[in-house]
């Protein structure tokens, strides 16, 4: 499936000169098509397939033969500074020649065709179709045309309904898979202007700016940049890191992740390098359902084979009768009668095999996944892989960060210290001009943004808050700053080193300056001096001033502020790589605050009730982390010893100490990306099912190691959006964590409920159909429409369709297509090793199936004498009792795993509605359409008997549900009665 390109006319950014209103649309379309055809010919002489191959094959020699990157740029008619022209004609011509970066999708008609083809692949359906054609031929000869037509209509209805459900599921998956948020944004320059566009809109010839956290959207060539390091995941799951540059390795491949540095790249190939993941292939539920379907289907085919042999033996022995009671045998009868007999002999086993194949199991899982994914999209959660539902139901621990997750994704400067004075205490006018100038340089230039977008505010929330504050409170003029300074080198922020760097030249006095910013724990130890705020004089950091700085940082941490330090030193290019790191001069310390997200405490409490542990992993000071954890409820008012641990301490534990203290650790402060990874790995070693919530480059290792990565928002690193199977798209309310846990558990419980119901109904149908065929008493008839076969299976063709609708479609709607109950969050997580079909479910299936088989066989063999009915009424009672039994079985299955039955029943409005529809149609079939559908009318006494026998299964289910409690009560009574008090 794919997103198709919008080809509406006229394009919004293309104008036409034709002014005749009557023909404007046709002329616009013609002009556009003509212009596009002309534009496309300009690339006709380019060996663009060779260009695509040289990047994928990393062929240096082929690159040189094409004139290096300059030759490729020239051939693709682009510019390294200004990019492509970028109008609609240019973009469309490039897509027509080189391909699109969007996925390719099946059309709706193709989806339905594939669904219909899948439905008719069943050999039993093909066999029934052949029998129907023969029956139609026999009916033409005998004047009974309606029998063959009815059979064909039944088969057609079964195929259409199955294809329709398959199509709906596939269509839902297509809509979910290709939401716009699935494509992250990328910085691209076109016609000299930088834009943010979807990666799906990238075309060959585009110039893209890459920064840490970006996922390379297409194959291309490195143009220029600094310290670009990328990672790729190999087929065996191992991660390989490599450095890209303009000489040794300038080949950049689609899907690799930028982990350090920045660069500009030229796009040389799009589209074909994209992966398309099938949405429901590697899902544990699917494998288990397919295995169950295969086992039950094979049992059904075995029973059908036995039925066929019995019927064939009757035919060969001369013990087969037609509907008029005439003997039919292999000899002595007309060819037409023999053909009709063979139709009955073949149709009966085919019907048995078809009804005993629970294909609804696999289909119900697909339907449940599609419905759940659609409902989650409406609340702002994009689920891209169905396997996550199985994992979500089993999640025991969630690792979260603070910024952008517990707190909102924007920050504000609440404190700024220059030297030993805060700006609130010393107005800006009193701060030395040289200090102000250096702060402008360190704040305004030490950011990682596309080259020509530096005048705008940074996208990183921390940099943006400081950047905007400096413009407002320090009078920073970004345009003037750019004119007076030349950037030699930028060292992007590195989560491991927790700092970034900048080397610039001041064009006014030709001095060279180095700037650093990052965590105070990293920057301040690199400083030997600090600037006095009012005089601008550098003072030595001695023991007393160092203690004062530590007190400042501690006070800011206790107020929940995140601290960033700025440092500087005048240097030279020659001395840049040799000067001591301990010779920087501290410029200032900024404190930033993050508003906490709404419903954070409610979410944390809900996770605790659901048996899910939350672990806060943050780079903040331990005091800041502890305060935030107390505010949101992860820690109690008075944290216990060992609940807050620093990253370095956790890293230095021995393996045994880590595993011993792991459960008690709730907050990991001053954590590096490696510490996050180590925490996730340790949790997995202790058999926890781990979800990890992140959005930045510092989270990528932990996200990759977790069972289920969750990207909290679409503004984070592109790799996190593309790599995470769960993305919070519209609103980043932390309460959505509970929402996805609820839906993960809900779909598992729904699948279990439907599995129990469907297997019970399938086995009952299989045993009754085969039993009434093999052990038929009286004359065995061959009317393929009225009695399906010579064995008098009690479900005629239309009734068989009705049974399949109830067991397949209606029950799936009642048990699968429904929102989960909130009470599921009061239960512990599922055991990941526990199968869908549990031992208690097997017990329920066995007892319920046995009960239904007993009452249906009783009606079949003794019903005429017990209820004083004729043969047709007896068959009607069998059908009616079976249908009503399944209605009550839906209720039993829907209450699987729930203790408060009455409260749950009040919530199941859709179930009650579907039950009402089934009963209404059943009454209509028996009382109104009896002649047309081959049924018989029942009186109130017979209806009451059917309902009473079916309702008894409900009481039986209630008894089974209370059996564990009854066992506990009996054990308690026995233990109490055997207690003998001591005698002094």
UniProtKB/TrEMBL annotation:
Keywords: Calcium, Magnesium, Membrane, Metal-binding, Transmembrane, Transmembrane helix. Residues 66-135 form the Cation-transporting P-type ATPase N-terminal domain. Residues 794-960 form the Cation-transporting P-type ATPase C-terminal domain. The chain crosses the membrane at residues 152-171, 292-316, 336-354, 797-817, 837-859, 879-898, 910-930, 942-963. Gene3D superfamilies: Calcium-transporting ATPase, cytoplasmic domain N (3.40.1110.10), Calcium-transporting ATPase, cytoplasmic transduction domain A (2.70.150.10), Calcium-transporting ATPase, transmembrane domain (1.20.1110.10), HAD superfamily/HAD-like (3.40.50.1000). It is found in: Membrane. It comes from the Eukaryota. Residues 184-276 form the P-type ATPase A domain. Residues 1-22 are annotated as: Disordered. This is Calcium-transporting ATPase. It comes from Penstemon davidsonii.
């Amino acid at each position: 499936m794919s997103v198709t390109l919008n080809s509406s006319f006229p394009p919004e950014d293309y104008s036409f000169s034709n002014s005749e209103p009557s023909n404007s649309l046709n002329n616009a379309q013609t002009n556009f098509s003509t212009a596009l055809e002309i534009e496309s010919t300009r690339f006709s002489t380019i060996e663009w397939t060779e260009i695509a191959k040289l990047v994928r094959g990393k062929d240096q020699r082929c690159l040189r033969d094409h004139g290096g990157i300059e030759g490729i740029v020239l051939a693709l008619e682009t510019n390294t500074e200004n990019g492509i022209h970028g109008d609609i004609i240019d973009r469309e011509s490039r897509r027509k020649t080189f391909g699109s970066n969007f996925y390719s999708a099946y059309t709706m008609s193709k989806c339905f065709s594939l669904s219909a083809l899948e439905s008719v692949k069943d050999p039993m359906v093909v066999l029934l179709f052949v029998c129907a054609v023969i029956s139609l031929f026999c009916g033409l000869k005998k004047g009974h045309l309606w029998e063959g037509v009815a059979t064909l209509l039944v088969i057609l209805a079964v195929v259409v309904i199955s294809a329709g459900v398959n199509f709906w599921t596939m269509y839902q998956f297509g809509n979910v898979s290709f939401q716009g948020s699935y494509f992250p944004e990328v910085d691209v320059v076109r016609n000299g202007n930088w834009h943010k566009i979807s990666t799906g809109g990238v075309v060959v010839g585009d110039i893209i700016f890459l920064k840490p956290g970006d996922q390379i959207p297409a194959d291309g060539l490195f143009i220029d940049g600094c310290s670009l390091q990328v990672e790729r995941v190999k087929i065996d799951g191992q991660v390989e890191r490599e450095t890209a540059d303009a000489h040794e390795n300038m080949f950049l491949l689609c899907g690799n992740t930028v982990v350090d540095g920045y660069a500009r790249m030229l796009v040389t190939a799009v589209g074909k390098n994209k992966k398309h993941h099938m949405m429901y292939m590697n899902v544990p539920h699917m494998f288990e359902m397919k295995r169950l379907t295969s086992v039950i289907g094979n049992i059904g085919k075995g029973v059908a084979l036995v039925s066929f042999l019995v019927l064939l033996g009757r035919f060969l022995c001369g013990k087969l009768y037609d509907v008029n009671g005439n003997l039919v045998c292999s000899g002595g009868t007309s060819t037409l009668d023999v053909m009709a007999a063979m139709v009955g002999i073949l149709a009966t086993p085919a019907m048995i095999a078809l009804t005993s194949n629970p294909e609804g199991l696999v289909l119900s899982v697909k339907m449940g996944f599609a419905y759940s994914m659609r409902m989650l999209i409406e609340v702002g959660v994009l689920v891209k892989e169905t396997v996550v539902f199985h994992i979500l139901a089993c999640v025991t621990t969630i690792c979260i960060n603070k910024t952008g997750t517990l707190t909102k994704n924007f920050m504000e400067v609440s404190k700024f210290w220059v030297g030993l004075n805060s700006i609130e205490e010393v107005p800006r006018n009193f701060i030395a001009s040289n200090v102000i100038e250096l702060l402008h340089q360190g704040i305004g230039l030490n950011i990682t943004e596309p080259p020509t977008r530096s005048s705008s505010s940074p996208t990183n929330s921390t940099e943006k808050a400081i950047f905007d504050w400096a413009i407002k409170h320090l009078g920073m003029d970004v345009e003037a700053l750019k004119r007076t300074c030349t950037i030699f080198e930028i060292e992007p922020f590195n989560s491991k080193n927790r700092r970034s760097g900048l080397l610039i030249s001041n064009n006014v006095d030709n001095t060279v300056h180095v700037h650093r910013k990052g965590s105070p724990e990293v920057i301040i130890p690199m400083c030997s001096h600090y600037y006095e705020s009012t005089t601008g004089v550098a003072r030595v950091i001695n023991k007393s001033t160092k203690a004062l700085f530590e007190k400042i940082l501690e006070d800011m941490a206790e107020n929940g502020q995140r601290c960033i330090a700025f440092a500087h030193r005048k240097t030279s290019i020659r001395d840049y790589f040799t000067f001591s790191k301990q010779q920087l001069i501290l410029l200032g310390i900024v404190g930033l605050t993050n508003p906490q997200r709404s419903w954070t405490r409610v979410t944390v409490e809900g996770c605790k009730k659901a048996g899910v542990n939350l672990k806060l992993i943050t780079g903040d000071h331990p005091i800041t982390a502890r305060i935030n954890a107390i505010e949101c409820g992860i820690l109690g008012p008075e944290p216990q010893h060992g609940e807050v641990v620093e990253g370095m301490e956790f890293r230095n534990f021995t393996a045994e100490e880590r595993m011993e203290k792991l459960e008690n650790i709730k907050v990991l402060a001053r954590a590096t990306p490696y510490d996050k990874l180590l925490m996730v790995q340790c949790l997995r070693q202790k058999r926890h099912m781990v979800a990890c919530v992140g959005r930045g480059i510092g989270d990528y290792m932990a996200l990759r190691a977790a069972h289920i990565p969750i990207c909290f928002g679409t503004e984070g690193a592109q790799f996190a959006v593309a790599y995470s199977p769960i993305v919070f798209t519209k609103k980043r309310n932390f309460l959505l964590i509970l929402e996805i846990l609820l839906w993960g558990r809900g779909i598992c419980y729904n699948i279990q409920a439907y599995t129990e119901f469907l297997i019970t109904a399938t086995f009952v149908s299989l045993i009754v159909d085969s039993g009434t065929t093999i052990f038929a008493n009286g004359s065995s008839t061959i009317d393929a429409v009225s009695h399906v076969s010579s064995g008098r299976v009690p479900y005629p063709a239309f009734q068989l369709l009705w049974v399949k609708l109830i067991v397949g479609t209606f029950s799936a709607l009642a048990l699968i297509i429904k929102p989960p109950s909130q009470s599921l969050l009061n239960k512990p997580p599922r055991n990941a090793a526990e199968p869908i079909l549990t031992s208690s479910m097997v017990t329920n299936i066995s007892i319920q199936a046995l009960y239904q088989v007993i009452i249906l066989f009783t009606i079949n063999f003794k019903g005429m004498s017990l209820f004083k009915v004729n043969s047709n009424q007896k068959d009607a009672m069998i059908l009616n009792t079976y249908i009503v039994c399944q209605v009550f079985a839906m209720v039993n299955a829907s209450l699987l795993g729930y203790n408060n039955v009455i409260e749950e029943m009040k919530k199941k409005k859709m179930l009650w509605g579907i039950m009402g529809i089934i009963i209404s149609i059943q009454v209509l079939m028996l009382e109104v359409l009896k002649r047309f559908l081959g049924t018989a009318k029942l009186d109130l006494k017979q209806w009451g008997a059917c309902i009473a026998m079916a309702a008894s299964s409900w009481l039986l289910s209630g008894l089974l549900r209370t059996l564990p409690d009854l066992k506990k009560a009996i054990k308690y009574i026995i233990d109490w009665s055997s207690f003998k008090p001591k005698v002094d």
